[in-house]
Amino acid sequence: xxxxxxxxxxxxxxxxxxxxxxxxxxxxxxxxxxxxxxxxxxxxxxxxxxxxxxxxxxxxxxxxxxxxxxxxxxxxxxxxxxxxxxxxxxxxxxxxxxxxxxxxxxxxxxxxxxxxxxxxxxxxxxxxxxxxxxxxxxxxxxxxxxxxxxxxxxxxxxxxxxxxxxxxxxxxxxxxxxxxxxxxxxxxxxxxxxxxxxxxxxxxxxxxxxxxxxxxxxxxxxxxxxxxxxxxxxxxxxxxxxxxxxxxxxxxxxxxxxxxxxxxxxxxxxxxxxxxxxxxxxxxxxxxxxxxxxxxxxxxxxxxxxxxxxxxxxxxxxxxxxxxxxxxxxxxxxxxxxxxxxxxxxxxxxxxxxxxxxxxxxxxxxxxxxxxxxxxxxxxxxxxxxxxxxxxxxxxxxxxxxxxxxxxxxxxxxxxxxxxxxxxxxxxxxxxxxxxxxxxxxxxxxxxxxxxxxxxxxxxxxxxxxxxxxxxxxxxxxxxxxxxxxxxxxxxxxxxxxxxxxxxxxxxxxxxxxxxxxx
Length: 519
What we know:
It comes from Psychrobacillus psychrotolerans. Residues 4-168 form the N-acetyltransferase domain. It holds the Pfam family FeeM. One of its GO terms (molecular function) is transaminase activity. The chain is an alpha/beta fold. It is 36% helix and 21% strand. It is built from 16 helices and 21 strands. The strands form 5 sheets. Strands 1, 2, 3, 4, 5, 6, 7 and 8 form an 8-stranded mixed β-sheet that branches. It has a 7-stranded mixed β-sheet with strand order 10-18-17-16-13-11-12, with helices on both faces. The two termini are 18 Å apart.
């Protein structure tokens, strides 16, 4: 199993130094022999090393740096004077070294290195990479996408050609045909099934046509059947927009409420409520821990609150908050319950009966494209001039369509909702949740929350702080770059992508190999 990562340990640097010696002293006589059998690059402490491993063994490496002057600056002068225009659109980096162990020169390792270098450089803002390519491997460098931009330099024994690689050049190269399959564990966007893709390629319908009205009504009826709510309002936008429209209705009430939170999206609701200048108190609990129902009841029993706002499925922790108990408390004290169900709706069956307002989206567990936001209601909403028209749910009562909604979005949603017939998608996501729970237990991974739901799972990686970055270089896209995850050093995997089963098995194999390598 070949896999990639950034070198960070002394063990890795020693292996790189040995490979450098074998390549640039013994094979290419660029440097003088040394009894240590190791060659440390002059700019070692400035280099970033991308390495390819075969199981536990170093198979190849590429080292690059961004500090000027480059070695080619010293040999040619300012390299920008020689570079083609398409290489001048961003930061430059220099490939100091590229070497593959003789036992692994099968082409695959070079292509892994080129792909990893291209991806890493591109994601870190580099527009082009420069290299002094040995003339004996010029054909290989050309296959990787490097192209000469100046005359050869060096000695007859060790002659090198100044070459440049850009993202576009790599994408047009032979190496780019060696596609490393990527596996996504993101909670969105979701990779689209063939049926959903066909829905997006269908001819558009005007939102003023009868055909569109009938299709939209079918979709709303499906959503109402799934949710148990009395009304469903569709907006063109994200889950944040749906929550804005929900909070706008609380603004119209003009009464004090309670926001209950235990994660980043509870924090977001609080910030949105502040922007609307709502009057509210906050019951805040530790991330990943359940609500203290006794404390909430104590607050509601004071009679000080007319509404309660909470997150049902807290995306930042993978925590499913207790809906039925909160429903009972709100009913007992005549408090209107409002919920962010953006991550939970479609992930598992639950009823919104008795909930004042709740939100959902098309692009999470339901599995179609992001872009449609839902606000469910159990009371008929009336229009108001005191909120922006686009957030005014009252304008869409009686099946009115006040604003443009692309027909392909509605059509694709209708296709996606068919997966819920006979509970099939619910069952699929539930099986995936059990699969994850079993596997993380085998690997000793402790999930942040015990109250999971079949959409997203969170763990704190203490032992291997670069695990997510290294996984990405081997084709596994974990969810870890959101600010709220970075601050708390959290990693997440979602089970909503179509190829989850295959992706999860491969990731677990990779993770086992990764842990053995580092232990």
